[in-house]
Specification:
By secondary structure, the chain is mainly α. It contains 17 helices and no strands. The chain has 3 domains: 122 residues; 147 residues, Four Helix Bundle (Hemerythrin (Met), subunit A), CATH 1.20.120; 98 residues. The longest helix has 30 residues.
């Protein structure tokens, strides 16, 4: 799938190496506890998710490096948290002693990683033994449940303020009551995804994000199961909010399947950093944008006059970008088909001008992985001097542009903005 994004990095800026621990921005004790809990509980979810952790690989040193990176991040965060708590910061269920216990539990499996990685390749039996040891070290720690709770609580506070105000103003409605138990789950998932978003924004190495995605997948499945139970209890009466919840459950399950089976499957074994970035960007956008669209539909159900651009200001720019991209892709596809029929100098010059204009403006609204493919096509077209080869190349390019156009038209943000062909 393809989606819009504004965060871009140059190919040369992408590091081609394993995840390294980087100092996180200064954060309060609650944020540090959330982040630590997300990483340690994400490791457990990662081990249980074969699609993310192993796939079809034979050298298990690759998932070991990914989990080691996550343990390093968790250890660093927990160390900072311990210092904050010792300085006087307070949390409800975590004190400095609990943080020290958690830090020690993280360090145990981490201390074994370097010696294990000297074995090449790492066999499945060793991987399974190390997984078991790591899970036992983490889950047997008395502080582990508190850190998991820190990663899964306060989801409602992460939702847009205007959405929370809307629900507060309609707290007596039946629809609001249906949402009380669902919205915190959405907030928790979005907060976890925000960790991946921050890694993308800071241009960090991204293989460790598989740990967070594994945690997200667990929370999404739990949320879907909860929603399905509520829908089942409603029976055949799926009017109003129950119908929206039923649709939300279905949509979320579809997007999660795309992410796990298409975008993130096999990423643990990929080496090119550009490919890892592209897959992560796609997975992040698919889940984040679909969840935001679902929240917008909830808000409309409670108040049909709600302004979704006030709930999610980024929607406006995404809508504008998507409209421009859809229009330009359609025009480019039409022009490419015309040039394919007649590759005379004037037609090729006109197409070249349009390609250059697209590359200067609209191309940045594509996904990173689509930009890379698009750029290769453009380079081949501009460099090709053989008329016969150019005709075949334009045929393939036109089919590719039509595919991109179709994918853009499927964007949820364009649901109420059907495409109007400018030609009569």
């Amino acid at each position: 799938m393809e989606a819009a994004t504004q965060n871009r990095i140059s190919v040369s800026a992408l590091p081609d190496r394993d995840i390294a621990v980087r100092n996180p921005p200064r954060a309060g004790a609650a944020t540090l506890a959330f982040q630590t809990g997300a990483w340690v509980s994400g490791i457990e979810a990662f081990f249980a998710n074969d699609a993310l952790s192993t796939g079809a690989i034979h050298d298990f040193a690759k998932p070991l490096r990914v989990s080691r990176s996550a343990l390093q991040k968790a250890s660093h965060l927990c160390f900072i948290l311990t210092g904050e708590l010792e300085k006087g910061a307070t949390l409800t269920n975590i004190d400095s002693a609990a943080a020290r216990l958690m830090h020690g539990a993280i360090r145990k499996p981490l201390s074994l990683c370097d010696s294990m990685l000297t074995a090449a390749p790492l066999g499945q039996d060793v991987w399974i033994a190390w997984k078991t040891f790591t899970i036992e070290s983490l889950t047997n720690c008395p502080a582990f449940p508190s850190f998991v709770a820190a990663a899964e609580s306060d989801g409602i506070d992460f939702l847009p303020r205007k959405l929370r105000e809307l629900l507060a103003n309609h707290s007596d409605s039946a629809d609001a009551l249906d949402l009380d138990a669902v919205l915190p789950r959405f907030g928790t998932i979005l907060r976890l995804l925000d960790l991946v978003g921050e890694m993308l924004e800071r241009d960090e190495p991204l293989r460790a994000s598989l740990i967070i995605f594994a945690k997200v997948a667990d929370r999404v499945r739990e949320m879907i199961a909860h929603v399905n139970q509520r829908v089942l209890r409603a029976g055949d009466d799926l009017d109003g909010m129950m119908g929206v919840l039923d649709g939300a459950s279905y949509m979320t399950s579809i997007e999660l399947r795309k992410v796990l089976q298409q975008e993130l499957f096999g990423v643990v074994a990929l080496r090119p950093a550009t490919t890892v970035y592209a897959r992560n960007e796609t997975a992040y956008a698919l889940l984040t944008e679909s969840l935001q669209q679902i929240l917008a539909s909830f808000a409309r159900q409670v108040d049909s006059n709600v302004d979704i651009f006030a709930l999610f200001p980024s929607f406006r720019s995404k809508l504008e970008q998507s409209v421009v991209l859809r229009r330009d892709l359609h025009a480019l596809g039409e022009l490419t088909r015309e040039t394919e029929k007649s590759t005379d100098a004037k037609s090729v010059e006109r197409l070249t001008k349009e390609l250059n204009r697209f590359m200067e403006k609209s191309v940045r609204y594509l996904f990173y992985k689509d930009i890379e493919t698009f750029e290769r096509f453009v380079e081949e077209i501009l460099e090709n001097k053989n008329q016969k080869d150019l005709t075949a190349l334009l045929h393939r390019f036109a089919a590719y542009v039509e595919t991109l156009f179709g994918q853009v038209c499927l964007r949820a943000i364009l649901e109420h903005h059907p495409f109007e062909n400018p030609k009569p």
